[in-house]
Design brief:
The chain has ten helices and 28 strands. By secondary structure, it is of the alpha+beta class. It catalyses: Acts on substrates that are at least partially unfolded. The cleavage site P1 residue is normally between a pair of hydrophobic residues, such as Val-|-Val.
């Protein structure tokens, strides 16, 4: 089971309030929980007093999925260092067996099975999945063939040979509401046929992973390791989600689980069943959440839009003239919001689509038309971020002391050391106060400050004096922070840093 560590821990508060009846004029708005408005004392028609009958019908279609994997492990000689071999590997690699467990469910009488990609993917680098076994609730075992899988949506389709097999259908998750009852069936910790129930805690939950599928149904129904790939049912017995992740500081269930909504999963599954690959739109930008302090510092509205921190050369955004520092607020006719991110909207469009993007640049709104590219494989998008080299350039200045930084101008020698473009001006951070706001927001020695952003204006910094003047101007304007554009090994981002009084 994967863990959604990108989420911040949330505190869910509950309480009890006394009810006070007041005289209200005719037509006045009433409280949401006005007596008589909600009938919660008895189940509404169709709601079960027990889930037993429903589970008895559904459970035969839920399966256990196990894989056998072959992993090559390089052997080392424990006496190598003693005899001067420097700890180098000795002998041929050794092959070891590994196993994984998860859940899934049948969606056709002839044996198509849906599960998570991570249930049937190799669990370690260099590992090879040798076999996949599907075990039905009645104990029958089948060797499964992998029909297709998609890493980004975390979905996979298997096929077992059989007929008249029990199966379930997808429902309409678009009408799922917070507070609805849901039932999850799966095989947590390898325990077969485990049923849990709860409610929908949230819909369209964004976990921060980005991409076309970062919108989940959140539930408090117990989901643990091994539940991955199992179905989430509504009270009509329809599959409205595929259990995929949990948020857990402990590794066990803490009441925060996530399911891929059926409305997101079914189109992908339909394509995988046909042997088709999944293609998604690609803009070619580095994105950054527009926090309240960044919005204030850049002079743009808060709560809407995504800040562009990097534009890849020769990709769709660059060809359309999108720049670093632009705030994209709308894709087509859809607003960019925390629940409907730029990454989500773009990835759900087809490559080659021509779409208008509304953005804010220098305080002014404008629209650019972009022809989307094709999103590269996830492995290609992953970037390796090496550690900064421990070299401190000489003649540093404490001009940035009020924000906890000591800096020096960038030159070709330093640029080579910190992996920066030497042809653009900037200041290199050579020392940082570990207790400063800058340190808390991830600024490190070796980072390069390229620009200062004040409202709609962005100004390059070429000297420590430039930075000092910018800090002083911010303080004179009554600002408690300053927005800097900072690069780490060429990857840039905007950072709002508090100014010490």
């Amino acid at each position: 089971m994967r863990y959604a560590y990108a989420l911040a821990t949330a505190l869910l508060l509950s309480g009890t309030a006394a009810t006070l009846t007041l005289h209200q004029p005719a037509g006045a708005q009433t409280a949401q929980n006005e007596p008589g408005a909600i009938q919660a004392s008895v189940p509404r028609p169709g709601a079960p007093m027990s889930f037993a009958d429903m589970v008895a019908k559904l459970q035969p279609a839920v399966v256990n999925i196990s894989t056998t994997q072959r992993v090559q492990v390089q052997q080392t000689n424990p006496f190598a260092e003693m005899f001067g071999f420097g700890g180098r590997s000795q002998g041929a690699p050794q092959t070891r067996k590994a196993e994984s467990l998860g859940s899934g469910f049948l969606i056709s009488a002839d044996g198509y099975v849906v599960t998570n990609n991570h249930v049937v993917a190799a669990g370690a680098r260099g590992a090879v999945v040798e076999s996949i076994t599907v075990t039905l609730a009645d104990g029958r075992e089948f060797k499964a063939k992998l029909i297709g899988r998609d890493a980004q949506s975390d979905l996979a389709v298997l096929k077992i040979e059989g007929s008249n097999l029990p199966f379930v259908r997808f429902g309409d998750s678009a009408h799922t509401r917070v507070g609805d009852w849901v039932v999850a069936i799966g095989n947590p910790f390898g325990l077969g046929g485990t049923v849990t129930a709860g409610i929908v805690s949230a819909v369209h939950r964004v976990t921060g992973q980005g991409g076309a599928y970062d919108r989940f149904i959140q539930t408090d129904a117990s989901i643990n390791r091994g539940n991955s790939g199992g179905p989430m049912f509504d009270l009509n017995g329809n599959v409205i989600g595929i259990n995929s992740q949990i948020y857990s500081p402990t590794g066990g269930n803490v009441g925060i689980g996530f399911a891929i909504p059926a409305e997101e999963a079914k189109p992908v599954i339909d394509q995988l069943m046909k042997g088709q690959s999944i293609e998604r739109g690609y803009l070619g930008v580095g994105m950054q959440d527009l926090t309240d302090d960044l919005a204030e510092g850049l002079g743009v509205p808060a709560g809407r839009g995504t800040l562009i921190r990097q534009v890849e050369p020769n990709e769709a955004a660059a060809k359309a003239g999108i720049r670093t520092g632009d705030v994209i607020v709308k894709v087509g006719d859809k607003d960019v919001t925390p629940d409907q991110t730029l990454s989500y909207l773009i990835a759900n469009l087809k490559p080659g689509s021509r779409v208008p993007l509304e953005l804010i640049r220098d305080g002014k709104r404008q629209t650019v038309n972009v022809t989307l590219g094709k999103r590269p494989p996830e492995e290609q998008l992953a970037q390796f971020d090496p550690n900064d080299e421990n070299s401190t350039p000489p003649e540093s200045s404490s001009a940035g002391a009020s924000i906890g930084l000591a800096v020096t101008p960038l030159n070709p020698r330093i640029a080579r050391t910190v992996g920066a473009d030497p042809d653009r001006p900037g200041l290199v951070v050579v020392e940082i106060d570990p207790s400063s706001d800058a340190a808390g927001k991830g600024v490190r020695t070796g980072d390069v400050i390229r620009e200062v952003a004040r409202g709609a204006t962005r100004t390059p910094v070429t000297s420590a004096d430039d930075l000092a003047k910018a800090i002083a101007a911010s303080k004179s304007a009554g600002k408690s922070s300053i927005v800097l554009f900072v690069e780490t090994r060429g990857a840039g981002r905007f950072v709002s840093i508090e100014i010490a009084s």
